[in-house]
């Protein structure tokens, strides 16, 4: 039985004025509580040993996995450099993680962007799938970049659609960033990695930083067909990983049950905060996020400024590609006490 914090409204002490930073996307409960003692079991671990442990966790062959010492960002940077040529066309669905766009512009690729409409909650619906399919047919992209679950909207793309476009476009490289997958699916039952055996043109990137609660170890994971992995290892696979990071990764993989605990806690907190916001008149949820972040705005005023004035830091997304001028902030959920404080602050903003 998984023990979780109760989702109950509580009152914070009067005069609470300490700044609350919800701009950072993090696991509020951190890493496994068993990590300190578990590390002692892996003092002699190696990079190959961690690769084998990741393979066991994902139920994959280790030949289809490589690690990067610069986190998943290192893999994201390496992919266009290794597999694309200047002038190649790439497809990105906006709004999404800014790192994809940056890595492509640095390699001189031609970028075609599809805008997901705000009016439908930035959801991956049938009209978006149709536009993606039509665009693929028109521009014949060399690469398609997908963030699933998506950052910053928290929405999820249908696994069957990813399979369909991968099979229909075998010469197109399809990158799926799953940094937040374990939040919605701690056992990776609906992960795109399940498609790789039938779709050798897919690369999936993962990380220890989110559900595992280990952003400091900076280890990114790439899962793909072994031929792609061999190419990735000429760059991303050769980055140095500090030995202490390897030890902590091995200890974390010993307690993958922590992912299920984290997933349940975040889902509870997400339900609590979204339910509270939906009772408000002037505070708007931008999307039906399924992960530990929310896009939120005020109907009439700058929510970023209003929350700043109440000592709550958020990420201002008003100038982010795909969200320009829409006045959204991105909020990374915290533990329950922090989320109660956020809700109380939003209620105050709702009166303004």
Question: What report would you give on this structure?
Answer:
By secondary structure, the chain is an alpha/beta fold. The protein folds into two domains: 20-30 and 258-350, Aspartate Aminotransferase, domain 1 (Alpha-Beta Complex), CATH 3.90.1150; 35-253, Type I PLP-dependent aspartate aminotransferase-like (Major domain) (Aspartate Aminotransferase, domain 2, 3-Layer(aba) Sandwich), CATH 3.40.640. The chain contains twelve helices and 13 strands. It has a seven-stranded mixed β-sheet with strand order 2-8-7-6-5-3-4, with helices on both faces. Strands 9-10-13-12 form a four-stranded antiparallel β-sheet. It has a two-stranded parallel sheet with strand order 1-11. A hairpin with a 7-residue loop joins strand 9 (283-285) and strand 10. The longest helix has 21 residues, at 257-277. The model is unreliable at 1-16 (pLDDT under 50).
Q: Report the principal-axis shape.
A: globular
Order of helices and strands: EHHEHEHEHEHEHEEHHHEEHEEEH
Oligomeric state of the chains in view: single chain
Strand order of the largest sheet: 2-8-7-6-5-3-4
- Strand share of the residues? 15-25%
Question: CATH H-level name of the largest domain... which superfamily?
Answer: Type I PLP-dependent aspartate aminotransferase-like (Major domain)
> How far from one another are the termini?
43 Å
Number of strands: 13
Query: What is the SS-derived class?
Result: alpha/beta
């Amino acid at each position: 039985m998984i023990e979780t914090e109760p989702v109950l409204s509580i009152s914070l002490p009067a005069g609470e004025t300490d700044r609350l930073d919800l701009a950072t996307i993090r696991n509020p409960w951190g890493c496994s509580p068993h990590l300190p003692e578990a590390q002692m079991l892996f003092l002699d671990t190696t990079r190959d040993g961690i690769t084998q442990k990741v393979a066991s966790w994902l139920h994959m062959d280790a030949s289809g996995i490589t690690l990067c010492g610069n986190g998943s960002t290192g893999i994201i940077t390496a992919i266009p450099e290794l597999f694309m040529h200047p002038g190649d066309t790439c497809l990105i669905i906006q709004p999404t993680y800014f790192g994809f766009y940056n890595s492509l512009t640095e390699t001189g690729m031609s970028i075609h962007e599809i805008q997901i409409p705000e009016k439908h909650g930035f959801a991956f619906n049938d009209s978006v799938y149709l536009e993606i399919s039509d665009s693929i047919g028109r521009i014949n992209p060399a690469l398609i970049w997908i963030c699933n679950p998506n950052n910053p909207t928290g929405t999820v793309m249908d696994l069957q659609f990813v399979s369909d476009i991968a099979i229909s476009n075998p010469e197109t490289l399809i990158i799926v960033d799953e940094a937040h997958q374990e939040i919605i699916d701690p056992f990776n039952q609906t992960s795109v990695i399940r498609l790789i055996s039938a779709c050798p043109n897919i690369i999936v990137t993962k990380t220890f930083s989110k559900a595992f609660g280990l952003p400091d170890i900076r280890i990114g994971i790439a899962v793909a067909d072994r031929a792609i992995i061999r190419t990735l290892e000429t760059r991303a696979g050769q980055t140095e990983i500090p030995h202490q990071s390897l030890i902590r990764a091995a200890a974390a993989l010993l307690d993958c049950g922590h992912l299920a605990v984290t997933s349940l806690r975040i889902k509870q907190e997400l339900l609590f905060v979204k339910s509270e916001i939906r009772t408000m008149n002037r505070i708007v949820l931008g999307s039906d996020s399924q992960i530990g972040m929310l896009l939120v705005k005020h109907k009439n005023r700058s929510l970023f400024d209003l929350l700043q004035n109440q000592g709550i830091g958020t990420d201002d997304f008003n100038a982010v590609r795909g969200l320009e001028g829409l006045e959204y902030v991105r909020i990374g959920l915290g533990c329950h006490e922090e989320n109660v404080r956020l809700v109380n602050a939003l209620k105050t903003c709702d009166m303004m």
